[in-house]
């Protein structure tokens, strides 16, 4: 017999203290984007509210302190002046591998400095999209001093323009060889970039076809410069675009793979802690090879916490760890809140932990549990991110629920084979054929799913509708948390008398 109990909902929420932290922090970041307050008032308010919270042990003062803390951290990024649109002098450092188009090449770049109308050079932490015509060759890591034209992103109100602004991009800088004043190639890649480049070189030695190489690079080391528009469209239409961005799914696959390889280590004295140390090192090494993007770092922190909790037999809850990681990363970089990759990956993991994991607990057969996990994890993640995907991209791909078990399996195999090939001697030559075959299989499944007439739909949704859908999903989750199984009361014969 099942009964709904408000106490059960309260118990679940009580076990999620970090939820009560992340909500006011998010509220503060959102409030700062609408209301500008002097930094003195914000940080003074944090100190006063924090002091009152310690003195009076009041949750209200804690909430106010966290709200002001979120506003204060977000305010640190608003004061830097952006360069004006039009012709100007700029110093830029190329951050990504240039992508060659028909008549130009493009890359992400860090705006090191720019010259204002008074001839004063201003340092900058902004980023921009660098476009070079066919006369100018650009290379990753080099620093260019040039005269170019800075333009806003096309359709300034578009989602893409807002997304780039949230990521700290100021616009598109167009340049040519005649506008180049100085080129400095002496600055080599940093040690993180060096690890990323070693991964790129290892994949290049596998001898993969261009399409398969593009997918393998995107899935394993986060290098998406070789993905063609047609390939991106196929993955979007099939509901499998999440595979092309290194995120919690990829780190989770590595987490399971490493732990499976060391299954016998805990039998040794202190082996469970040695296992945690090796697995944690492997997770962070992979995060660095994959470029240390925010999504990868978020997943690395989360799975590190899970690994340590296992090692020291600590009581933990996955959602609590996720919210804690989100708090730390948002305080360090508040602009991530407006990044679509952060939003999608966060929603997917919340759905997996809130719905997928609980539904799997009743299954004790390992084979059927693993089979069910392929459907449930992909299914709940796809459904949870669908409203936001429709709002942001205008595409709903229900076929993703069907093919997710297949592509998640191929993704696990592809990631495992590629990482094994990169970290063993002669690995690219020995395992290149297996990586090629697995990538070809995955691409074929994705392509056929994308071509199916009823596999995806072009839909448009406004912000209000999207918020109402997620409010409904939250209420459904709370209702499910309140369900409690009650054992029926058995009456003895004496009781009937």
Would you mind describing this structure in some detail?
The relative contact order is 0.10. The longest helix is centred in the C-terminal third of the chain and has 28 residues, at 366-393. The chain has 18 helices and 12 strands. It is globular. The chain has a 5-stranded mixed beta barrel. It has a two-stranded antiparallel ribbon with strand order 1-12. A two-stranded antiparallel sheet has the order 10-11. Strand 3 (99-100) and strand 4 form a beta hairpin. Residues 491-497 have low confidence and may be disordered. Helix 2 (19-34) crosses helix 4, helix 2 packs parallel to helix 12 and helix 10 (271-289) packs antiparallel against helix 11. By secondary structure, it is α+β, with helices and mostly antiparallel strands.
Structure summarized in a few sentences:
By secondary structure, the protein is of the alpha+beta class. It contains 18 helices and twelve strands.
Secondary-structure map:
Blueprint: E1 2-4, H1 6-14, H2 19-34, H3 39-56, H4 59-75, E2 86-94, E3 99-100, E4 104-115, E5 121-123, E6 127-133, E7 143-151, H5 159-166, E8 169-175, E9 180-184, H6 191-204, H7 210-221, H8 229-237, H9 248-261, H10 271-289, H11 294-311, H12 318-332, H13 340-360, H14 366-393, E10 395-396, H15 399-423, H16 427-451, E11 457-458, H17 463-481, E12 483-485, H18 493-496
Helix pairs in contact: 2-4, 2-12, 3-4, 6-7, 7-16, 8-16, 9-10, 9-11, 9-15, 10-11, 11-12, 12-13, 13-14, 14-15, 14-17, 15-16
